[in-house]
Amino acid sequence: MSAATTTRTQRSRREARAAALFLAPDAIGLTVFVAIPMLLSVVLGFFWIDGFGNVDFIGVDNYVRMAKDPQFWNSARVTLIYLVTLVPLIFVVGLGLALLVQQRFPAVGIIRSALFLPYVVSMVVVSMIWQFMLTDRTGVIATALSAIGIDGISFLGDPKLALGTVVAVTVWLQMGYYMIIFLAGLQDIPGELYEAARIDGASAWQRFRSITLPLLAPTSFFVLLTSMVAVVTGGLDMIFVLTSGGPANSTSLLIFYIYQQAFLFGDLGYAAAVGSVLVVFLLIVSAGMFLATRGGRFSHDD
Amino acid sequence: MPPDPIPRRRTVLAGAAAAATVPLLSSCSASRADRPLSFWNFYSPAPQQDPNLVAQSDWFAQAIDAWNASREREISPVYMTGDQMNQRMPIAFASGDGPDIFLISPGDYLRYANGGVLEDLAPYMEQEAIDDFYPEALTTRRDGEAIYGLPMEQEPLALFYDPDLLEGAGVAEGDLPQDWEQLLDLSARLSSGTITGLVLDVDPGYYQNFTFYPWLWQTGGDVVDPSTQRPVFSGEGAQAALDLYGRAIASGATPRTRPANGDIVSAFSSGYAAFWQTGVWDVSNLRLNAPDKHFGVMPLPAPPGKETITALGGWAWCVNARGADPESAARFVVQVLGSMEPSSIEHVAAWNGPVKGNMPARASVDAALVASDAFADEHLATFHDDILPTGRGEPRFPPAVYKAVSDALQSVELAGGDPTEESDRAQQTIESYLETYQGGTLV
Fold first, then answer.
1. Which of A31, A40, A50 should be substituted to probe chain B, the one whose Cβ sees the most B Cβ atoms within 10 Å?
2. Which residue in A27, B80, B199, B229 has its CB near the most CB atoms, within 10 A?
């Protein structure tokens, strides 16, 4: 073996060791606080557990019960509607805002900060403020609508409107975060491409469709994936404060249903089983997204 | 003895699950033999400086200090909010590290009783003290001769009203609604602009069910017949009570969300609500936080031709049978709440009187309060003389029964559901659940 090869091997080992050391804190944290609890939660789904030390293996009974449980299916339906409306809205609004604040104009920094600000406020506080604003008859929104002759709308008390209201508040809350991510993606796109397109006579829409969107694909993939996971696994605080899952279960997301089963009803095994189904759903959708994009790689990266 | 928990096959896998649960849920704890007994509550030590909350905190502290001064096994209060307690209790009990003493409402009672974690307090009590508790206060914490919790209060529901607002609409206090129909008619007439006629609870939860039961009972209906333990929710009474809630919303008498986020002080002070169904605790709340606001209290109107009935809420102290020292904890609870010693009666009278301002759960405490003219306040007098005697203890139902009633109520009230269909659906759910239910009686 030549001296050069030995040096390369040693360097390669050192790099591997350094990489392992850098990755270790995250890997250990993920294993202890995510992977192991996730596996244990799957195990708990096969038990009846009352939370007082009484445990009984019941096989797939929790899953059979779930299949027959109308409240589970209602929550699954609500979660699906929430997911398919919220993720595209977050995507479009986040991207739209990023395109707007990408421009250089006076006070752009302040506007960017203002749009991001809701994201750093506690979700409980945000939810309470919106609850005040959306109160029937006396809330600021009801008062404003009444001034223009629109009365009797109950944004949080009408089952037909409550979920849409939660979606709107969530978009308002999260749009700043996704705006920042899109902004970072936009700033990575070389300006020469736009310049060349302009010289070739491309319109703004053509430049957006042919340059911005394709080159934003990795960022878009990241936003879609993370927002989907955040939407399905988050939102508990907001639902807890804004609607308590009501009116008439119209905002009872699966994550809220799991909370109810575990913490209010003490049915930990069933809650774990529902949680496992949710995790499997997320894994399947995420895997599908990775497969469709060849592991998140896009043609211009190749 | 606690009621037998649901029969279960112990298996190796059960052990595996328990083992799997431990690293998830357990927390480090000091040696159980040495540490003070923990008392989880939402009063003490108070994290705020509000004089009323400080007085309540001090009441707990005095009871604990008196015990700690004379006993080896100390008690240590742990404060948390109600929501925090809801979230932490299941985790703590699942990891075998539940509090030694804690507060629970009837809504939660059966879960803990059926889980076998409540210590029977009867062996630590004199018969005279047991008989001193009003049956409606103690029944929902008993199983046969055993007593699994001692109530510290009774909190009846009533209808609070704003006389100024009513007067402005031409309604004198002598013309207050006498039955459901009058209440709905008047409330619908009053509802306009920012004014709400009648505030009923709208958020799904144990509290909403608690506020619904009096309307249900006034019809002669019930969820479960206490004598037969069979569900009776598909009866005409339940349908009428559900229909009342549906009509209240549909007629515009009741809003779909409560004014001022459910804060009666703000709502009454701002003239936002004419009638509000709430409990005795709001007498002192309004007195302290809106001392200039004139308000009235009346019993809940009944259906035409029926008698008024109310529900009695309130919290009980329970002892963890699997705690570090259940015997000492039980003796502490009995010394504070369930003894015939004059000091115990005086201390509880202070709670139900000047400190909290609610209704007593014991005859001797009631006598002490009457003797000290504690019900001189006109609203407390209404509660004590007119409303409390019509009370029935908040029922203890397992979660599945609570949820079936809640779903029916929410559907009829807020989603236009048909009362007959919804009561039938709830009835079927409860019937199906009770077929395999084993545990404490549903009363």
1. A50
2. B199
Please name the residues in contact with B339: beta carbons below 8 A apart, sequence gap of 6 or more.
B125, B126, B129, B345
Give the number of A-B residue pairs with CB atoms closer than 8 Å. Answer: 155
CB-based contact B399 A138, cutoff 8 Å: no
Classify residue B372 as exposed, middle or buried by CB count within 10 Å of its CB (0-12, 13-18, 19+).
middle
The mean pLDDT value for A90-104 works out to 94
Contact (CB, 8 A) for A46 and A57: yes
Secondary structure of A178-190 in HEC code, one letter for each residue: HHHHHHHHHHCCC
- CB proximity under 8 Å: B 89-108 to A: 90, 93-94, 96
Closest partner CB to B256 (pick from A57, A131, A158): A158
Least Cα separation, residue B344 to chain A (angstroms): 32
pTM for this prediction:
0.90
Pick from B59, B103, B65, B61: nearest CA to B84: B103
Residue range A47-61, pLDDT digits in tens: 999 888 889 999 999
Contact status, residue B244 vs residue B408, Cβ threshold 8 Å: no
* pLDDT > 60? residue B12: no
Contact flag A44-B20 (C-beta cutoff 8 Å): yes
Q: Say which of B10, B272, B407 has its CB closest to residue A249.
A: B407
pLDDT digits (tens, 9 = 90+) for B215-234: 999 999 999 999 999 999 99
Strands (E), B345-398: 391-393
pLDDT score, position A1: 54
Distance (Å, whole) CA B144 – CA B229? 15
How close A282 comes to chain B (CA, Å)? 22
Look at residue A78 and tell me whether its pLDDT is greater than 60: yes
C-alpha–C-alpha distance, residues B184 and B285, integer Å:
26
Closest of B291, B300, B91, B271 to residue B183, by C-alpha: B300
Classify burial at A260, counting beta carbons within 10 Å of its beta carbon; exposed 0-12, middle 13-18, buried 19 or more: buried
Q: How far apart are the first and last CA of chain A?
A: 34
Q: What whole-number distance in Å separates Cα of residue A296 and Cα of residue B72?
A: 65
Q: Is the pLDDT confidence value at B2 over 80?
A: no
pLDDT of residue A52: 87
Select the residue of B11, B411, B414 nearest A157 (Cβ to Cβ). Answer: B414
Q: CATH number for A46-301: choose from 1.10.1200.120, 1.10.3720.10, 2.60.40.3140, 3.30.380.10.
A: 1.10.3720.10
Residue in the block written with tokens 């739209």: A96
What is the chain B residue with the closest CA to A43? B17
For residue B399, the surrounding DSSP H or E stretch is helix B399-414
- How far is A26 from B95, CA to CA, in rounded Å? 27
Give the containing element (helix H, strand E) for B38.
Answer: strand B37-41
Largest CA distance in chain B: 73
Q: Which chain A residues contact residue B87 at CB under 8 A?
A: 263
Q: Say which of B90, B256, B413 has its CB closest to residue A266.
A: B90
Query: Could you tell me if B117 lies within 8 Å of chain A, comparing CB atoms?
Result: yes
Contacts of A135 in chain B (CB under 8 A): 257-261
Q: Do A137 and B90 touch (CB under 8 A)?
A: no
B195:A47 CB<8 A: no
